[in-house]
Amino acid sequence: MTELPTILITGATKGIGLALVDRFAPMAGEMHLVARNADDLKALQSKLAQNGCKAYVYAADLSQKESVDQLVIDLNQSMNSLHLLISNAGVYLPGQLLTESADNLDYMIRLNVLSHFDLVRGLYQKMPRGSHLVYMASVASKKLFTGKPSYSISKHAQGAMIDAFRHELRPLGIKVTSIMPGPTWSASWEGVDFPKARLLDAQHVANAVWHAWNLPPEAVMEEMVIRPFEGDID
Ligand SMILES: NC(=O)c1ccc[n+]([C@@H]2O[C@H](COP(=O)([O-])OP(=O)(O)OC[C@H]3O[C@@H](n4cnc5c(N)ncnc54)[C@H](OP(=O)(O)O)[C@@H]3O)[C@@H](O)[C@H]2O)c1
């Protein structure tokens, strides 16, 4: 690739998404960043501009299908091509299947699975051969966490979808990588009182994505599981 890459990151303003922005901004031709909070996006855009990075921002609620559909229209209008799509936005809502609000699973399926489905289907035609789709999956994509079943269900479904997209995008020359982090410091862990080393730093995850992106064209990192050394928190 001779041109500097165009990069899209969802869930870009906090946690892992923000670490990804920091990691990739220095080498991006342009960045397209998505989250709900417009003020956070504007502040991030200004910070990046001060460092010479051109960023376009989109305030969109990816849990709403109409909002995802509008985002796809806006992105198709503003991007000539897309070289790296990091589909990162997602949420963990606590609860047990029998007692949680019935909306929990519905919301996580919408945000953690279907928004990614709509986004990839709406954008893959902008992605030339050699481009890369990276999903932020989870260790809960392969293992049932009995303390967070609905989240695990959504991430398992997302995992199967990633495998299916990999199969269908390979003939188009598009790499697909699933990053499966264990517990990582972010807004979702605010208030917990764990020793720092019990959770990954978001930068560890961003570095994993960086390594996947930097493999030569003939190799793809299909999956990466990255955990705190001391293991999961169930
Ligand atoms: N942290 C962990 O322990 C961990 C572990 C494994 C996997 N993951 C996965 O990593 C990804 C990022 O997690 P994180 O912990 O870094 O998240 P986070 O710190 O809570 O940040 C979430 C980001 O997504 C945006 N977002 C949230 N809901 C959204 C919505 N409905 N529409 C659009 N944007 C939305 C947030 O901005 P706004 O609030 O402004 O929308 C924010 O930028 C998720 O897919 C998560 O499942 C996280």
3D architecture notes:
The model has no long low-confidence stretch (mean pLDDT 96). 40% of the residues are buried. This protein has helices at residues 15-24, 38-50, 65-78, 103-123, 149-169, 202-213, and strands at 6-10, 30-35, 55-59, 84-87, 132-136, 175-181, 223-226. With 234 residues, it is of the alpha/beta class. It has a 7-stranded parallel beta sheet with strand order 3-2-1-4-5-6-7, sandwiched between helices. Residues 11-17, 35-37, 40, 60-63, 88-92, 111, 136, 138, 181, 183-184, 186-188 line the site of NADP nicotinamide-adenine-dinucleotide phosphate (NAP).
Would you kindly provide a brief summary of this structure?
The chain is α/β, with parallel strands linked by helices and 234 residues long.
Q: Could you give a short account of the major beta sheet?
A: 7 strands, parallel
- Ends apart, CA distance between termini: 42 Å
Which architecture does the CATH hierarchy give at level 2? 3-Layer(aba) Sandwich
- Cα radius of gyration in angstroms: 17 Å
Number of strands: 7
Oligomer: single chain
How much of the sequence is in beta strands?
A: 15-25%
Structural class: alpha/beta
The side-by-side strand order for the widest beta sheet comes to: 3-2-1-4-5-6-7
Topology order in helix (H) and strand (E) letters? EHEHEHEHEHEHE
CATH class: Alpha Beta
Our count of helices gives 6
Which shape, going by the Cα principal axes?
Answer: globular
Count of the domains:
1
CATH fold field value:
Rossmann fold
Low-confidence stretches: none
